[in-house]
Prior knowledge:
This protein has 243 residues and is an alpha/beta fold. The chain is built from seven helices and seven strands.
Amino acid sequence: MSAPVCAIVGAGDGLGRALAARFAREGYSLALLSRSAAGSEAALGAARHAAPGLEHAFHSVDATQPEALQGALERVAAEVGEIDVLIYNARGGYTPREPLNMGFDELEDIFRLEVIGAFAAAKAVMPAMLQRGRGSVLYSSATAALRGSATNPLYAIGKFGLRALAQSLAKAYARRGVHVAHMRLDCTLDVPQVREWLGEQFDVEQTANCDDVADTYWWVHRQPRSAWSNEVELRPYTETWTC
């Protein structure tokens, strides 16, 4: 019997690495999809270290190209096995500016990454999940999905759209066995880029440990159907929060 398959779109050296290791440790073959093989090297290595006897592979694709992303995921399903868990972990960057200074191209780009890419991924894997009557789709998001921003509107607009997509999919397909969850990361993650950016100001107690966050993703995937979570917020105990 072949191993179940977990596909991660946006598998970098932070949360992507932790997710790859967590699901591999539970017996899943990992399909890691990103633009750059170098960016996914840590995640692929973590999966192979956690489960060396399973098949894990990197697939190069740009999440802003929906047809290419859908095709890549469909090829994974055909060549490796139907995807049991989809984690959409791609996100746009922080681009400070006032709303009226947003460019049309920037707005289209963030929408393609956060919403259209997320939809393309779901469109690739959910039909087979619905046929089987089971599967999980987990979207990595942020508190920006709940509030607009005067200084970083692009990020907020993208996350608002992602949350609406996640809720729509959850409401439409939960009764047919597919668990869709919006994973709201209300925190700064302890990832290499943050450590480099903050330098001596970095405080591990003020960040969320990626391995701990990955444990929560696994917990959501394993929830019994009688008690599914569709909106999950995660933050460290030190976080000051308002919503």
